[in-house]
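Request: Show me your protein:
***
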Amino acid sequence: MGKLIVTEFVTLDGVAQAPGRPDEDRDSGFVHGGWQAPLVDQESGSAMFEHARSMDALLLGRKTYQIFADYWPTAPDEIPFTDLLNRVPKYVASRTLTGPLTWQGSTLVTGDFVERITAVKERHDEVHVIGSLDLVQSLLRFGLIDRLNLWLYPLLLGNGKQVFADGTVPTRLLLTESVTYPNGTLQLSYETAGAPTYGNLAGDD
């Protein structure tokens, strides 16, 4: 069984909506699109690619797929991600999209969610998810995520779509990597470790 690895770019108040471009996602009147761009430097950008280059499949939700499919097929070749994302097989989990999908190498995931995602994991060594916030909630709910890579930025936006929205299933995480970059960005990697455990800091009654 391969691993399913989620990468999210997140502000300190948990917002992950539209990090890349001003017009990326204006749902609910979001006006902070492109917030990540001024905070990415060469060092952190290279680290992002090193984390991603081991993927042999990409799993996306509808919204992120449409954003990526609009940009990456014609993105400049000098961007390291261009060849990687265009080359690997892409799976799209959506109840509303219908084929054929325009981005070469893309397959629509339909039918029983757990069965289909499990089949994708069995087919590949590393399936990566980027963005796709609604999809991530479903993956967490069914215990399908093996690793979370969170890029935490020193920024507060006050509103926007959250990585861990209402309804997130309680999950224990084990920190496996922590890197701080000069601009204040934290790169945190966690493995999922089942349900939380509980205690009593006040001691026994």
